[in-house]
Amino acid sequence: MTDYVIVGAGSAGCVLANRLSADPAVSVVLLEAGGPDRSPFIHMPAGYRQLMLSGNVDWGYQTVPQKHCHGRTFHWPRGKVLGGSSSVNGMVYIRGHASDYDGWAQMGNRGWSYSDVLPYFKRAENWELGEDEFHGGDGPLHTSRVQEFHPLARAWMDAGVQAGYPRNPDVNASSQEGFGPLDSTITKGRRASTAYCYLRPALARPNLKVITHALASRVVIEGGRAVGVEYVRKGKTEIIRADAEVILAGGAINSPQLLQLSGVGDGDHLRSVGIRAVHDLPGVGQNLSDHVATEIQQECTQPISLLKELKPVNVAKSLVRYALTRGGPIAHPGIQTVGFVKSRPDLVAPDIQYHFIMIMYGEHGRTLHKSHGYQPLINVQRPESVGTVLIRSKDPTKHPEIDPNYLAAEDDVRVLRDGIKICRDVLAQKAFDPYRGTEISPGRDVRTDAQIDDYVRQSAHTQYHPVGTCKMGIDPMAVVDASLRVRGLSGLRVIDASIMPKMVSANTNAATIMIAEKGADMIRGGREGYAESVA
Length: 535
What we know:
There is one protein chain. By secondary structure, the chain is of the alpha+beta class. It has two domains: 1-35 and 72-143 and 182-290 and 386-405 and 465-535, 3-Layer(bba) Sandwich (FAD/NAD(P)-binding domain), CATH 3.50.50; 147-181 and 292-380 and 408-459, 2-Layer Sandwich (Cholesterol Oxidase, domain 2), CATH 3.30.410. 27% of the residues lie in helices and 23% in strands. Strand 10 (186-187) and strand 11 form a beta hairpin. The longest helix is centred in the last third of the chain and has 18 residues, at 410-427. Residues 526-535 have low confidence and may be disordered.
């Protein structure tokens, strides 16, 4: 028996394990389906491409064929390891626009406005430039910024200004709009995952137990209360009971899957796969949202892209430099700058985000173009298309059916079309004159709206940001309330990216960590002295 059982040692679960076990009077067990984060490719920032290539710490998810994207099936990488996707992602640290969180509050989620959540972003953060109005200076999560910008990164920021957009020195501060530098979850040349920043410092606590290679198969529910978790490890099924609460932190895929396996979800759907409905909650697995993206790929007339760093002799030199100094190309993932723009001037906030990549690649980095170039990734900040995550088997080892329903909403296509047009204008500015080569894709002949739309549908891909499948709210499809308790059950919460009622206008890792910080505070009751004890 333990007080708290947390399912999932990912971006949220590691935060929760640290914060809850900070109280020596409670006991915490953290279950993780993956293994320890021992791979050196996890810890070196440039190693995430190798993680993608190997799939060794990945769940290996695939979507169903997407009818609005020429029937293509999408690969959905998700981390299966301590730290979850924070151990395999691109280390981008962007929080989103203030209106995202104000929108959550306006949907009936009291306590989730921007002014409510900013203190939790700050509590989490240890920004290398120090604490200020928007940043924390002594939290567990290390964030940093590259000090010397690549010439192509400088050209991107300069071209944005030349095209009429603001230069933004900090997209996580008072304004998001404009072109500027990117903050990353990196410290001293090392990935700052939640496993490294939150879990590792807590492992020595006697009241925290971490069990890896433990696949949760159901939440044990008795008399309307969650009392434990059943899991499979080394072929053996075990149950660990929770005296206080069970907390699901598996993310937008695993959390709704586990609820459904436990008989919590839409009753008709559960019965259709042979599961007895314990609690009818129709919103479980609904409201799936993800950032969908495309790109422009353009050759560079000078051999200065990151392609040169991948030549065997340069890789060897970089590895030696990294081993000796924790510096050089391996100490950064290769994304230094971003851009946020509005497709229409009347919008409250930017609806297009650009990640400027200083190399041309395809298939999630599995293929590299042989010529020097760059590719701005273009994604829809607030997609309207929503999909589902639904189990099709009682077997917990069988992946659920994932249908993001990409580009079902015509406005998502329109935003990407506008994003391509705006991006082309930026790349046509004077700052790129020394570097601008042939546009590889979509290609100079793709000009009409119909041609661009077809390119969007055949090239679109995930930005690795699934959210929303256990959404927070007060409407009939809400799964959790504003305290992240599963509606209609006691002793059970969901605290991860799945609770977002609407997608945030940013990469989702920072927001997920904030959710876990706030969720831990809710569990502890926000009682006096807690903030000081975990600062």
